[in-house]
Automatic annotation (TrEMBL):
<dbReference type="InterPro" id="IPR021858">
    <property type="entry name" value="Fun_TF"/>
</dbReference>
<feature type="region of interest" description="Disordered">
    <location>
        <begin position="1"/>
        <end position="78"/>
    </location>
</feature>
<dbReference type="InterPro" id="IPR053175">
    <property type="entry name" value="DHMBA_Reg_Transcription_Factor"/>
</dbReference>
<protein>
    <submittedName>
        <fullName>C6 zinc finger domain-containing protein</fullName>
    </submittedName>
</protein>
<keyword id="KW-0539">Nucleus</keyword>
<feature type="compositionally biased region" description="Low complexity">
    <location>
        <begin position="32"/>
        <end position="78"/>
    </location>
</feature>
<dbReference type="Pfam" id="PF11951">
    <property type="entry name" value="Fungal_trans_2"/>
</dbReference>
<feature type="compositionally biased region" description="Basic residues">
    <location>
        <begin position="12"/>
        <end position="22"/>
    </location>
</feature>
<feature type="compositionally biased region" description="Polar residues">
    <location>
        <begin position="1"/>
        <end position="11"/>
    </location>
</feature>
């Protein structure tokens, strides 16, 4: 080692000149790379640039010191990653993961400034929701108290904004209300059945959704005509309102239906759900009537059948913007249902198609599961008519189940070791898959698929499915 050090010392001047020349001239394609990884590889070579730098630094020569500094800089270790606070991690999770494939993804970041004043209800609502979502995802429930404190402050600021006619119609106010609804959906824990898909939704979420409906009507149609963001907000809030009504089997309020009909033309090309609006309204009305009637009338069942066939016609000839690919039969991964897989241009499009299938699930469940409650009038229907409806429901539910299960791979990440985890956007599967699991007309093999692959364990927020 001493001999090596002596040799290096004798040649340090010439090496310094050579090294400086290399620093000034651009690297050749076959020469040493200037990347950090290449520098580290050179430092570990037998000639040991690290040792050279150490030896050069002990020399009194100024040119030697320059060479040592350059070599040491090239071979220094990479700086450790920055440590992020819990608040920063929560915001990153919200913007990059939690709201992926939702309408929030298209506009929410533009309404958030990290150093907003304490009076900014929108920023407070985003902070609260980010922390709640991150705490749930990371299972760090100690952060929930801080999230709720931010929520309470945001709610106070929103109420103050709503009391002023000028601020009540601003975009920031509506965004804050939508984010507060997302917070309620995030922290809601369904204490009912194993699926959050059946009938329950948090009261506060419904209240915020209803508040958004009032704001939409207060804002009027003029903002939609002049602002693309206003159109995004209307489409988002409107879909939430309709999802809430379907979730609770409640009719869509007539004043909002009329307002929605007047402004729908302004949303063409901006909201992919516009072509589904009429079908969505019909299904919602049927669900509301079914809840009101103690016994199912044959008229209601036949109406459900007719609407289901209208949805089939839509699926057979969808708009070009909604097209997707059915992969060749039996070409999917071994763990998928019947190895059937669909491919979509985006997760948003995949969710939209599952929303269409969810509408069919509601109708087919009425025809299949609820047919026992039908009031049979022998002058209107015979027993074989009811039997035929049940068989229709069983056959078509098998098709719908297959189509929905074919979308599961879109929401699953498979690691290099073969383990599978759901993407955050996969929580939208909870509602349709939960109903399928409980349905008496769902194929038994499809129900087994839900259990065998842990699909029913996906973290769900079913009642915000249409968002």
């Amino acid at each position: 080692m001493r001999k090596e050090t002596t040799n290096v010392t004798k040649k340090q001047s010439s090496r310094s000149k050579t090294h400086a020349a290399r620093q000034r001239s651009p690297p050749t394609q076959d020469g040493a790379s200037s990347s950090p990884s290449s520098s580290l590889q050179q430092a570990d070579s037998s000639s040991s640039r690290q040792s050279l730098a150490s030896c050069d630094s002990s020399s009194s020569s100024s040119s030697s010191s320059s060479s040592s500094s350059s070599s040491s800089s090239a071979s220094s270790p990479i700086s450790p990653a920055l440590l992020l606070s819990t608040h920063q991690q929560a915001l990153a999770f919200l913007f990059h993961t939690f709201i992926a494939a939702t309408p929030f993804e298209g506009y929410l970041s533009s309404f958030y400034l990290p150093y907003s004043p304490d009076s900014d209800a929108c920023a407070l609502a985003i902070d609260a929701t980010a922390l709640a979502a991150y705490a749930r995802h990371a299972r760090q429930h100690r952060h929930q108290d801080a999230a709720r404190a931010n929520y309470a402050r945001a709610l106070s600021r929103v109420n103050k904004a709503l009391a002023d006619p000028r601020t009540a119609v601003q975009d920031q106010t509506l965004v804050a209300v939508l984010v507060l609804a997302l917070f309620e959906a995030t922290v809601f824990q369904d204490s009912g059945s194993s699926s959050s898909s059946s009938s329950s939704a948090p009261t506060s979420w419904v209240a915020h959704t209803w508040g958004a409906m009032q704001l939409l009507m207060l804002r009027g149609p003029d903002q939609l005509a002049s602002s693309s963001v206003a159109r995004q907000l209307f489409a988002h809030a409107s879909n939430n309102i309709k999802a809430s009504c379907i979730q609770r089997s409640a009719p869509i309020p007539q004043p909002f239906l009329e307002f929605d009909g007047r402004v729908r033309g302004l949303l063409n090309g901006h909201d992919p759900a516009v072509p589904l609006a009429d079908l969505l309204h019909k299904v919602c009305a049927i669900k509301a009537r079914a809840r009101e009637e103690q016994e199912r009338s044959m008229v209601l069942l036949l109406e459900a059948l007719q609407v289901d066939q209208e949805i089939i016609a839509f699926c057979d000839a969808p708009p070009p913007t909604l097209s997707f690919t059915r992969e060749p039969f039996l070409q999917g991964p071994a763990w998928t249902y019947q190895r059937i897989v669909h491919t979509y241009a985006s997760l948003r499009l995949c969710k939209l198609w599952n929303a269409v299938r969810l509408l069919r699930i509601f109708l087919l469940s009425l025809l299949g599961d609820d047919i026992a409650h039908c009031r049979v009038d022998e002058t209107i229907a015979e027993a074989h008519t009811l039997s035929g409806l049940k068989e229709y429901a069983r056959k078509h539910m098998a098709e719908v189940a297959s189509d929905i299960l074919a979308t599961v791979p879109s929401f699953v990440h498979t690691t290099e070791y073969g383990s599978r985890t759901f993407l955050s956007a996969g929580r939208c599967l909870g509602w349709p898959l939960g109903i399928l699991e409980l349905s008496t007309v769902c194929p038994p093999d499809a129900s087994r698929q839900l259990t065998q692959n842990g699909i029913q364990g996906v973290e769900t927020i079913g009642f915000i499915y249409f968002t």
